[in-house]
Amino acid sequence: MHVPPLVMVFIAVALGAFGQVSLKQGVGLVGKFGPLGLGAVGSVLRAVFTPYVFLGFVLYAISSLLWIFVLQQKELSYLYPLIAAGYVLVVILSWFFFNDQVGWLRLTGLLVICIGVVLVARS
Prior knowledge:
- This protein has 6 helices and no strands.
- With 123 residues, the protein is mainly α.
- The chain has one domain (5-122).
- The longest helix has 26 residues, at 5-30.
């Protein structure tokens, strides 16, 4: 089955965005890490092995593997700007899952990003 490179890019971006959401959920359940030092290192290690943080890393790993395949097929100068779609998706997912506040200024910035991604994708 042949998956077009542009589709693989957006799947990789979506997996990365869901990975961010999973990481955020996981560290939110662990609680504050505290100041840098041995205690913080222990907290971070504990967080890494929570299901949500672990899932976030797995999603990033799968995303990276897809990215490697795509890099063989297209120019980096074409592909890399498309990652900006992840910024948009993370904001949408953050609003949906975490009730993050998204004001007009942030929405305007996201619109500019979307326009840029569309222009690069059409080039």
